[in-house]
Each structure stands twice: as C-alpha cells, then as structure tokens.
C-alpha cells in the first residue's frame, strides 16, 4: 500500500450554490496532475485549510463524473461547522486550495462492456458520491441500469435536482429516479381568496423517510423482485444508512453486495493533538511504526492515538476525517493490541485480518507494531 500524503495546490474554477446551504466547488486539474487525480466514482478528496491559524483537513466526496475535466465537490453547511461554513462563505473562483489525490473504498470500477443493475439509496448531502457513480455509469456503461431512491426534508433541500432530472430525461430507459420527502412544503392556493384557505402540500411524489418498510416496498415491487442487482450503495446520515442496511439484510440480500459511506464529525483537528479522546492505554507503550519504508519509534504514555502521536513528532501519516469513517489512516497491526474508539470505516473481515484505523487506535500493550505499508 502506497501512502500518498502529498498535497497538491488546485485552483477553484467554479463556485456554484446548489441550494442556500450547499456550494459546489470545481477544481481545475492541470495536465501534469491528471494522473494523480484520476478517480473511481464514489471516492473523495481531502482538503487542507488553515482557518484562524488552525490547520484542518476534511473529506468531501467527488460529485462530478469521471468523464469531466473539472473535479467537483459539494460542501453542505453544518450548524457551527468550521470548514463547511468557511467554504460556503469564502471560497472564490481563482483561490488555490491544498487537496490530496482521491481516495476511499466506496467506489465502482467502470467497465464499458458490463450490463449491471445498481440500486442507490441517498439522503441529503449523501447524494454526492452517488451522483458521480450514477452519471459515470450511465455515460460509460451503455448497458447498465441505475435506480436511485433519494430522501430529503423538503423540495428546497433536494441537491442536484435539475441534474438528476436531466439524467432521467437523457437516460430514460436506464435511470429510475424516485424522490422522497419527509416534510414537503405547504403552499397557500393561488387566487383572490387563496390567502384565506389553509396551505396545502403540492408535492406529488412520495412522502416519508427511507426506512426498513420503504426498502422492502421498493424492492418487493414487481419490477425488482426478479431483477439481479449487482450492488447497493448507501450514503446519508448514520440512522438512514443503518435503516437501509437492516432493510436490505432483512430481505436476505448478501452483505457483500451492500456498500456504505458514512460522513461524520472529525473528533479532533490537527492542531488539537493534545486534546485526546477516550479509551487509552494504562501502560507505557513502545510503538514501532512503518511508514513509506521508514521505521519510526514512538512512546505513548497516555490515551493519545497513533495519528496524534505521529503528528506530535511532526510526522504526517495518511489521514483525513479523524473520525473513524474514511479509512484513509488504515494500517496493519503487526504486534500487540490496540483499542479503537470508532471503527465504522473497517469491514469485519479487515478487522479479523488485523487492520486498524490509526486515528482511533490507542495502544493496550507495551509493544505495538503498526505497518502503514502493508497492503490489503
Ligand atoms: C468520506 C467522507 C466524505 C464526505 N463527503 C462530504 C460531502 O460530499 N459533502 C459534505 O458536505 N460533507 C462531506 N463529508 C463531511 C465533511 O468531511 C465534514 O465533516 C463536514 O463538512 C463538517 O465539517 P465542519 O468543519 O464544517 O464541521 P465541524 O466544525 O467539524 O463540526 C461542527 C459540528 O457538526 C458536527 N458534525 C460534523 N460533521 C458532521 C456530519 N457529517 N454530520 C452531522 N454532524 C456533523 C460536529 O459534531 C460538530 O458538532 C464527508 C466526510 C467523509 C468522512
Ligand atoms: S482519518 Fe478517517 S478513519 Fe482515520
């Protein structure tokens, strides 16, 4: 496994507000960097910024398809969110931003001769990797079919609405799009005395949430019962991902076919390496780290995790979200034991094979060896 931790300065060439609370940023990829920034649909970019003197990194899924020359991400504002609000307020065409090459294992490999059927479940900003996958598949796999169930609160929250509708129009035999709103807007009827009448829901589509029942109803539909689906891709808030996963497994769908991408809060920023999280060692641990062929010795005496301990020594391991979801910091535990705060970014078989998320790993034994260079 090669640990690509070199940032590249990319120029922003497009800043477009998709809704009041979400901005799309398009990056120009110069010819010399095209190789580094090749990606598979579903992957994300890691952005590094210095805000108020604080260095921070965040992951953003690529929302553009593979056949476009500009690579785009969509950043949705979060209440009190440092980076999401900064980018929504401050990003301008012409700005240069430090970006890591694409990574992530929530992805699809395109094959122009394939005839696949994929089902996508998205909610809110979770549409970002899915729209890249769907647009890339429809363009690059002429025999493939895509089905998307996309949940939002109301009409104003739907991201990429026009783009999705355009795809539906262009690929009408190969793309089925279903929106579902939990609280569609109520509108007062027009007309002279409209203001006297109670507001009414005008939304004609489905109303509700993506939950177990909705999954079951969608897939038990006559059109899907006999269809062989080659993969299910889910991205959205945690509870929606879990409900969808449970709904699919209840229908006896093989777990290997279900792929999930979680977005979640970073636990600590790079400059907060002293504010460590819970679950740490009660022992002094000598940690040997192998990173890009180099051996590094660390001594961890408190509940610092491996990434924080490396950063304290000014050594940059691969990392992005710091919240245990993106798996950029994954490495092989070759000796000793660690405890992880969060391990959502690892598959069960990866855990069994000794892989750990180093941004979440606290040593439990006196001797620990962590190898970033060991591939899967
Ligand atoms: C693999 C991956 C891909 C991602 N792709 C996208 C994307 O395409 N578009 C996008 O907008 N975001 C995406 N994210 C989330 C993004 O990386 C940031 O976490 C998000 O923008 C919040 O950063 P912030 O600095 O604004 O918030 P922070 O200042 O870090 O947090 C502010 C508050 O919001 C909470 N919080 C932080 N993140 C989330 C979250 N995701 N959901 C709910 N609450 C949260 C925190 O607990 C805190 O209370 C992705 C994350 C991962 C791991
Ligand atoms: S940096 Fe994302 S899981 Fe560790």
Tell me the layout of helices and strands.
Elements: E1 8-19, E2 22-28, E3 44-51, E4 54-61, E5 71-76, H1 82-90, E6 96-103, E7 117-123, H2 127-140, E8 145-152, H3 161-170, E9 175-181, E10 186-187, E11 200-201, E12 206-207, H4 212-220, H5 222-225, E13 231-236, H6 238-250, E14 258-262, E15 285-291, E16 294-300, H7 306-312, E17 330-335, E18 338-340, H8 348-352, E19 355-357, E20 361-363, E21 367-371
Parallel strand pairs: 7-8, 7-13, 8-9, 9-12, 13-14, 15-21
Antiparallel strand pairs: 1-2, 1-6, 2-5, 3-4, 3-6, 10-11, 15-16, 17-19, 17-21, 18-20
Helix pairs in contact: 4-6
The structure holds flavin-adenine dinucleotide and FE2/S2 (inorganic) cluster.
Features:
376 residues; alpha/beta; Elongation Factor Tu (Ef-tu), domain 3; Ubiquitin-like (UB roll); 3 domains; six-stranded antiparallel beta sheet; six-stranded parallel beta sheet; binds FE2/S2 (inorganic) cluster
Describe the fold and architecture.
The protein has 376 residues and is α/β, with parallel strands linked by helices. It has 3 domains: 8-103, Translation factors (Elongation Factor Tu (Ef-tu), domain 3); 117-262, Nucleotide-binding domain of ferredoxin-NADP reductase (FNR) module (Rossmann fold), CATH 3.40.50; 270-374, Beta-grasp domain (Ubiquitin-like (UB roll), Roll), CATH 3.10.20. 19% of the residues lie in helices and 32% in strands. The chain has helices at 82-90, 127-140, 161-170, 212-220, 222-225, 238-250, 306-312, 348-352, and strands at 8-19, 22-28, 44-51, 54-61, 71-76, 96-103, 117-123, 145-152, 175-181, 186-187, 200-201, 206-207, 231-236, 258-262, 285-291, 294-300, 330-335, 338-340, 355-357, 361-363, 367-371. The strands form 5 sheets. It has a 6-stranded antiparallel sheet with strand order 4-3-6-1-2-5, covered by helices on one side. A 6-stranded parallel sheet has the order 12-9-8-7-13-14, sandwiched between helices. A 5-stranded mixed sheet has the order 16-15-21-17-19. Helix 4 crosses helix 6 (238-250). The N and C termini lie close together (7 Å). Residues 265-278 have low confidence and may be disordered. Flavin-adenine dinucleotide binds at residues 44, 58-61, 73-76, 78, 80-84, 104, 125, 128, 261, 263-266, 321, 325-326.
